[in-house]
Design brief:
Blueprint lengths: L7 H8 L11 E6 L10 H11 L1 E6 L4 H13 L4 E5 L13 H9 L4 E10 L7 H18 L3 E6 L2 H9 L7 E3 L6 H9 L3 E4 L12 H7 L8 E3 L26 H12 L3 H16 L7
Parallel strand pairs: 1-2, 2-3, 3-4, 4-5, 5-6, 6-7, 7-8
GO molecular function: metal ion binding; single-stranded DNA 3'-5' DNA exonuclease activity
Keywords: Cytoplasm, Exonuclease, Hydrolase, Magnesium, Metal-binding, Nuclease
InterPro entries: DNase_TatD-rel_CS, Metal_Hydrolase, TatD-like, TatD-type_Hydrolase
Amino acid sequence: MAAVKLSQGELAEAALFDYGGRSPLALIDIGANLADPSFSTDRQEVISRAQRAGVHAMILTGSSLKSTSKAAEIAEQSDYPIFFTAGVHPHEAKSCTENTIDQLRSFAKHPRCVAVGECGLDFNRNFSEPAVQETWFAEQVKLAVELRKPLFLHCRDAADRFVSILREHHLTAPAVAHCFTGSQRELDIFLDLGLYIGITGWVCDDRPERGGAELASILKLIPEDRLMLETDCPYLVPRTIRPSKARPRRNEPALLPHVLHAVAAALGEDPEAVAQRTTANAQIFFELPGFQG
């Protein structure tokens, strides 16, 4: 008899019942790319699974004008607590024009927009030239200062220049290094700058060449009031979902509890304590309304 191939939704549904599949307390996914086309056919089912998994709010990442616009539309149409960020990712910096910042300024004034970004530097792939990335990163930092909005930041293989640009401006609101995957040196630099740290399913990856174990080993260096959790979906499916054939190919907010359990294990703490703390941090950082856990 041929093996039955499960759909993405069925695999994600099954993962809710796997170890770490549900959160003991309310979670907030601070980085979900739910505007991504991979969610176009089942976005509402994805949101429903997130609710049942214990994810009581999510922040959709704006990484271009197009995705920011879509994220705003999703937030507007949802009764579920969905918020969004408004920004241009360094990969997309080459698409920026003199009108880009004005358009982001307009999005940032939306009542459900809670941060400027995703913005920053990525010298790993250089899909946009480094000088172009730096120009538009600086412009978005200035916009956040102008609007007194938090910053949702991306940094890959560019820590020194990234930090120097941030230090050139007097930030008037907090900033988070989203999807942190760096070294202890980078972590020390970011913490010294006052950044919050977003941790994803990268910490669930046990492959030596990927650095998940190294990341887990330095989590205890993050101050308790500056740690937050995210999926960065549809990327970074938690590899703690076992066996591998049971893993969905696409990540989604319902799988955030797997990140919670991996972080709690690395910290040597109960998941309940980590859930309570990271949710409180996200509510304070993004100035989110309260909700019952």
